[in-house]
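Bug #77: duplicate submission created two jobs. Keeping one. Sequence:
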Amino acid sequence: MTAGQPSAELLNLLDLEGKAPIHYAALSGSTSAIRLLSQHHIDLNLRTVEGNTAIHLAILHKQTGSLKLLISLKADPTLKDLQLKTPIALAHEMSLGSEAEEVLERAARAFMLERFQRS
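Kept job's structure:
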């Protein structure tokens, strides 16, 4: 961190609405903000007070660009929200489309394989 730049710790703080900058970037479709935040090594899997990750919010707000970028940055596509919904289930429920569901399924398989290989 250089002088004048916020730390990842600061960028991971939740506001009064229970969201951090990564959540707002994901739900608004601001891929440039997601890229900038990731350069500060923020937690891409940070949860809101409702238990949603940035991936969940991208799906809920039908921001497929945000979704794809978060996946490419290695956000965890297997985390469940407080209602125990995975991003894949949520994408299906939101009728996000088969392309988004396929991206999530491939990412989830790759994430699980990588997790298995590390153990």
